[in-house]
Amino acid sequence: MKKIAIVGAGRVGESAAHNLAKAELCREIVLIDIKEGVPQGTALDIQESAPIFDFDTQLRGSNDLKAMAGSELVIVTAGIPRKPGMSRSDVLETNLAVVNGVVDEMLRGAPEAMLLMVTNPVDVLTYAAWKRSGWPRHRVFGMAGVLDSARMASFVAMETGFSVKDITAMVLGGHGDTMVPMTRFTCINGIPIEHFLSGEKIEQIVQRTREGGAEILSLRRTASAYDAPAAAIASMVDAISHNRRQILPGVALLAGEYGLTDIAMGVPIVLGEGGMERVIELPLTAQEAAEFQRSAGMVRADLEKLKK
C-alpha cells in the first residue's frame, strides 16, 4: 500500500506504526491525534529509527483528520482507554463520538479506503462505523480475535512448555468477558490441546484468555495492553498488504453467518487486498453455539445503546 493513516498516537497507535514501518507494509504512515505535538513527535521518533531497522517507510504526524486524505487503509486506535474496574462497554459513548468524526472525514477525504477498527468496544464500534459509512462490509472490519487468539496461544505455550511457533488458537465472539475460546480448534502442531492438558487446565486457560486485557490492566494500573494489540494490527495489515488471503479471526459484519444478521462479531475471516473477503463458518457444537449466541446477546445489548 502507498498510505496508511493511524488515528490515535497513543501507545497502541505508536507501537502499531513502528511495526508497520519496520515491516515496510506501506510507503507512508500518517499518525493523527488531537494532542498537539504528540503525533508529530511520535512520527519523528519512529522515523529516526529507520537507519537502525533499515526501512524506507516515511512517517509524519498531524492534529488534523484531513491528513488521512488519500489513505488506502485507516486504522482507528483513538479513544479513552479502560481504567481498572471498567469494562470495554463503559467507554462506548465517548469513543463512539470519536469514531463518528473519523468516518465523516473518511467519507470526504478517503472515500475508497478500508477501515480497521481497534478502539473499544470494538464489535459495537465496527458496526457503528459500517452503518455510518454506508460502505460494503468487506471494507469495514475490526481487530480483536487475532489478539485474543494470540493470548490463548501464549497461555498454552506457558502451560505446556512447547514452542509457541507450533501453537494455533481460535477465539470467536465479542471482544469481552463472553468471548468464546475454541478449544477444539486449538492445536499444537496439529494435535488438539486435549492430548496434552487436562480439562481443568484448559478451562483455566479459557478463563485467563477472557480476562487477558484486564489482567494486564490490573498489573500496570496506569496503562492497558499495547504491544500485543499492535502486533495483532500488524498481522492483519500484512495479510492485506501482501494479499495473502489469510484466515484470521476478526470482527466482521454478519449477514446470516452463524445465524446472525445486523451485528458485528469476532469470526474467522479471509483477509486480502480487498479487505474482508468472506466469513468462514465453523461447525459449532450445541455448547459452543450457545456460548456464541450469549456473546452475541452482550454485543446486541451495547448496540441498543446506540439507538438511545
CATH class of the largest domain, named: Alpha Beta
Sketch the major β-sheet.
Answer: 6 strands, parallel
Give the radius of gyration: 19 Å
Strand tally is 14
Report strand %. Answer: 15-25%
Question: Which fold name corresponds to the CATH topology of the largest domain?
Answer: L-2-Hydroxyisocaproate Dehydrogenase, Chain A, domain 2
* Main structural class: alpha/beta
Ranges where pLDDT stays below 50 over 5 or more residues in a row are: none
Q: Supply the CATH architecture of the largest domain.
A: Alpha-Beta Complex
Our count of domains comes out at 2
- Global shape: globular
Q: Which strand order does the major sheet show?
A: 3-2-1-4-5-6
**Termini, distance in Å?**
39 Å
- CATH level-four homologous superfamily name of the largest domain: Lactate dehydrogenase/glycoside hydrolase, family 4, C-terminal
Mean of residue pLDDT? 94
Total count of helical runs of at least 4 residues: 10
**Oligomeric state of shown chains:** single chain
Query: What sequence of helices (H) and strands (E) makes up the elements?
Result: EHEHHEEHEHEHEEEEEHHHEEEH
Domain Lactate/malate dehydrogenase N-terminal: 3-142
Keywords: NAD, Oxidoreductase, Tricarboxylic acid cycle
Catalytic activity: (S)-malate + NAD(+) = oxaloacetate + NADH + H(+)
Function: Catalyzes the reversible oxidation of malate to oxaloacetate.
Notes on the structure:
42% of the residues lie in helices and 20% in strands. With 308 residues, the protein is α/β, with parallel strands linked by helices. It folds into two domains: 140 residues, 3-Layer(aba) Sandwich (Rossmann fold), CATH 3.40.50; 162 residues, L-2-Hydroxyisocaproate Dehydrogenase, Chain A, domain 2 (Alpha-Beta Complex). The strands form four sheets. A six-stranded parallel sheet has the order 3-2-1-4-5-6, with helices on both faces. A three-stranded antiparallel sheet has the order 7-10-11, covered by helices on one side. The protein has a three-stranded antiparallel sheet with strand order 12-13-14. It is globular, with a radius of gyration of 19 Å. The termini are far apart.
